[in-house]
Task: inverse folding
């Protein structure tokens, strides 16, 4: 296993650990709101004003007023840290953008109002062959094949110059400014945000786990109340 593969495996293991820990912590919070001498489960249907419904409302209130603000705070911490770093202009993300969507799918998404897809197709065009991609980021392709990951599409920006520069860097599109938009993203070793990624990756995993678990509670509780 090379470094990149090992890193992904480590990240997956770490995420599983963080996710389980997050589930247990939220479960404990949820139980702390359960009325005394009440033994029902959180995801059962309860009538209005019953003890069970009061409990569910307390949990919803906790999620909205305490838990989600904690998630927003974590995101702000990661964003603040990102501001200490900047793009070193290596051009790697201009030369290789990976998407799970084909050009036709992106076009459809853009027509349906997806703003990211709309910007993406305005900037990037697909590579003609995989051989071209191999010359840009061979480690990444090796990783995808080792992880048996398929169904990816590779794009590049035709504007990037031979010396890896954006011809209109000051006015580059928002999605170029936002890259990398999360610290679990694969980054080329030349990227100026590698240190930021290293410092905030675990925080980002925690944030992702908290968001997933909170959404699960929110969706399932709201479904019962419909
Ligand atoms: S528009 Fe500029 S920054 Fe954006 S991908 Fe193209 S060359 Fe890179
Ligand atoms: S990979 Fe990182 S350093 Fe290189 S151009 Fe993209 S954002 Fe800038």
Result:
């Amino acid at each position: 296993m090379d470094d990149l593969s090992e890193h992904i495996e480590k990240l997956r293991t770490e995420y599983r650990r963080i996710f389980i820990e997050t589930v247990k912590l939220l479960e404990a919070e949820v139980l702390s709101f359960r009325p005394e001498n009440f033994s029902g489960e959180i995801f059962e249907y309860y009538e209005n004003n019953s003890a069970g419904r009061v409990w569910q409302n307390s949990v919803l209130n906790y999620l909205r007023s305490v838990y989600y603000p904690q998630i927003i705070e974590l995101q702000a911490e990661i964003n603040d840290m990102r501001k200490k770093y900047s793009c070193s202009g290596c051009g790697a993300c201009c030369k290789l953008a990976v998407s799970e969507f084909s050009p036709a799918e992106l076009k459809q998404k853009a027509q349906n109002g997806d703003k990211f897809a709309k910007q993406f197709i305005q900037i990037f065009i697909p590579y003609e062959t995989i051989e071209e991609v191999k010359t840009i980021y061979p480690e990444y392709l090796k990783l995808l094949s080792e992880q048996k990951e398929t169904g990816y599409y590779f794009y590049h920006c035709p504007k990037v110059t031979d010396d890896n520069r954006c011809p209109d860097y000051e006015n580059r599109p928002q999605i170029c400014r936002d890259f990398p938009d999360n610290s679990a993203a694969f980054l080329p070793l030349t990227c100026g945000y590698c240190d930021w990624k290293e410092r905030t990756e675990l925080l980002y995993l925690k944030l992702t786990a908290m968001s997933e678990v909170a959404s699960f509670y929110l969706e399932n509780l709201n479904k019962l109340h419909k």
Remarks:
- Strands lie at 97-99, 125-126, 153-156.
- Residues 87-93, 179, 188, 190-193 surround iron/sulfur cluster (ligand 2) (CB under 6 Å).
- The two ends are 50 Å apart (CA to CA).
- The first strand starts at residue 97 and ends at 99.
